Amino acid sequence: MNRTDESIMVALQDRADGGVHVEDLLAGALQRGQRRRLVRRTLAGSAAGVLAVAVIGAVAVFPRGGPADVAPAADPPPVSPAGRPPIAVGAPALGEGGTAGQNGLFHLDHEGTTNATWRSGAGWELMQTSGSSVVHTAIGDSTANLDKALAATGMELTPNPTSTPLIVDGKAATLVWSGMNPADGARWGYLRWQPVTGTWALVFTSFAADPGTNAATDRAKLLALTEQARFDQVYRCAVNFRLTWVPAATAITSCEFVGGAQPWARVHLSTGRATYSVNVTAAAATAAKPVNPNTDYSGTPLEYTDAGRVRRVAGAQVVTVDQGDVLLAKNDALHLAAAVQPVTATDPAGWPADPLH
Asked: How does 87-121 read in b/e, with b if 16+ C-beta sit within 10 Å?
């Protein structure tokens, strides 16, 4: 246990009967961001500001259109940290005009992570990191949309959790944690608070069975993880394919970027009745379960399952279409899979933001 964990545990134990003030822990995420933004403003100057205004329209996923005139670039575009999506140049951060789920952008990050997945939907965003434990960081422009982000984790939460009120940046927050699951001894918890006006956030994680831990150590870990949440950077969803045909009335409902050594992307779509997703991954990633074509669409070999999954090999990549409870017409699903056009560029900075255009 590090010194941060110890200090948090002491604070929790000393104030077990009242609200716990953790402003110094969680305000750091925004304070660090403000310091970074101040440095960027000082270095960039007004020329970079003109560039930011000129190119912001090009990084939005859902709205169409762009600026009529683009000012010449005074500086090369910023490079994203390794394993991150491309930076959305000029897009406002939270607290500066940016909102959760805005134009398919990502307004959140988590320090100290290398493998992560970002997902942005209407009014909410979710980031999942992997390591010694899986951590979900989410934001929403309302409490209802924050709940949608939590539901998107797919986690099955045990009933009757315990809640503790906290004070974060002078605002009410809630620490929620479960008891021990009798089946496997695992536990989970999350902190829910409002980092900026108009944005609600939570950091969620689960804890494996460990006889050396208890509720106090779980809460200390969770608060330490929350301190690593960042809201000062804005990324855009980058998709490594284009959809040259989709069923009628199709619209993107959320966009997902999977970072790491070999990044890839998934888009979630809906016709208003049927829901489905499309992704393209390296063929090597599916080596354990190779594609076995059993049908075709206009001569393109395809694998179709009763569950509505469609796959095909496209060079060194595999196209996958997964469907929800209501399936597309089989011919439409086959047509869709055959019409997915993988992007050959390996750098996500060169991937489209909107695969439909």
From this structure: bbbbbbbbbeebbbbbbbbbbbbbeebeebbbbbb
